[in-house]
Amino acid sequence: MNGSTAFFLVFSGLIALAGLFAAAMAHDYLQFFGFALFVFGVLFGFSCIKRHFDAQDAANH
After folding, report:
1. Is the distance from CB of 38 to CB of 16 less than 8 angstroms?
2. What is the enclosing helix (H) or strand (E) of 61?
3. Could you tell me if 36 and 55 are in contact, meaning their C-beta atoms sit under 8 angstroms apart?
4. Do the Cβ atoms of 48 and 23 come closer than 8 Å?
5. Which of 2, 23, 26, 52 is least enclosed, having the fewest CB within 10 Å?
6. What residue ranges of the chain have pLDDT lower than 50?
7. How many domains does the chain have?
8. Are 5 and 52 within 8 A, CB to CB?
C-alpha cells in the first residue's frame, strides 16, 4: 500500500467519524447530513481499498 492510498484511507475514516459526531450532535435535518457524511466516508474507504487491490492485481498480470 503506497502513501497516498494510506492517506486517503485514514482521511475517509476521519470523514466517517466526523459524520457520526455531526449526526449525534444534530437535532433536525442536519442529522441526515451527518449520516450521509458517514456513509460517504465508509464508501470512500471501500473504494480506496478496491483501487489498491485493483492496482495490485494489474501489477501481477
Report:
1. yes
2. none
3. no
4. no
5. 2
6. none
7. 1
8. yes
